[in-house]
Amino acid sequence: MAVQKMATASLKRYELPPLPYAPDALEPYISKEQLSLHHDKHHQAYVTGANANLEKLEKARQEGAEIDMKALLKELSFNIGGHVLHTLFWPTMAPAGKGGGGAPKGALADRIEQEWGSFDRFKAEFTKTAASVEGSGWAALAYDSMTARPVIMQIEKHNNNVYPSLKILMVLDVWEHAYYVDYKNNRGQFIDAFWNVVNWDAVNKRLENL
Q1: Where are the alpha helices (DSSP H) in the chain?
Q2: Strand locations in the chain, DSSP E?
């Protein structure tokens, strides 16, 4: 039986998005060296990996070859998860005093007040979530449309413990590659620094655009 050929050349691929600010814009909280390595090397690796996974799938379809689907789709999930979360992460931050830091306003502030009672209580819970991720992972603020409530999510790796279909509003990367140049193995210091560069306007817009 002949294998039908696919026009794979025209299929889209994942691409690394540019940073929405200069590599040194988040200093002193995140250095130019740290940010450049994180974006240009680590995020790029997930983009490259996801595209390689897709190409492997496409080649198998072209040739009618057998493939370890379970292993490949697990790897693809990991790489796509890494790409998606990092793509959300960069605009979640902005230079301190120029859109970054402070406290949220508008609809987001109202939702946080309603759910947690105060921004300080939300901040403390999110900080504990980020600090206690086992191994490598993320802390995320998401929105559950079924209950119309914001929820905090702890993601291991890029794709474990994700609440299906919930829209992510804010993410914090706590893999060591996000902070090892600036903070060595002190995740807590990095989390404290993150609050100085959170782009609440961007997070608020994600909520408003649901």
Answers
A1: 32-36, 44-63, 69-89, 106-116, 119-131, 180-183, 187-194, 200-208
A2: 137-144, 149-156, 167-173
Torsion angles phi and psi, residue 122, rounded to 5? -60, -45
The C-alpha angle with vertex 93 and arms to 90 and 99, in degrees rounded to 5, equals: 140
pTM of the model: 0.93
Compute the average pLDDT of residues 58-70: 87
Domains in the chain and their CATH numbers?
Answer: 30-210 (3.55.40.20)
Task: Assign 142 to helix, strand or coil.
Answer: strand
What are 72-123's pLDDT values in tens digits?
999 999 999 999 999 999 999 999 999 999 999 999 999 999 999 999 999 9
